[in-house]
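Batch job 17 of 40 flagged for manual review because the log was empty.
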Amino acid sequence: MLSVHCIAPVPKLLGMSVALALLATPLWAQTSRGKLSGRATDDSDAGLPGVTVTATSPTLQGIRVTQTNIDGDYTFVAMPPGSYRLSYELEGFVATVQTLEVSADQETVSEISMEISETYSELAVTTICFPIQTSPPWLDWIEELPIRHLLASVQPVPGSAAAPGADL
């Protein structure tokens, strides 16, 4: 029976792999990008969900847009270092602008309080009025008849009496 044992190369290979992984870890941790996060609140310090946050910068290609979550928090990741202009917009609140600096391998945190806007709404109500007829149409026709004069000209029948309250 012939058996071959290759025990010696495995620990050597394992040791080299661990050493290489430990040397490479600090390289992975360093980045040239930063993180920008924050929270949008109202005057009572409650988080505002649905705020549109727009980030612009000369170091950024284009713009980045996100919305705050239910707690009013937002995050932009992998932002190139530089100066950023952040605009915050939500219907019913005054639009707010803020300038921040983002550094490489750092997180920049921003807290912004938005004021309720004073909006004035004008509501114009236009109606078309139709006359409402409160009596049957034939009643006007009867009232225009000269019945009163007709009754005044009729002679009462002998032996008849006028009904109580009747005006003949």
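Reviewer: the log was empty due to a logging misconfiguration, but the result itself is present. Residues 45 and 113 are 7 Å apart (CA to CA). Unflagging and moving on to job 18.
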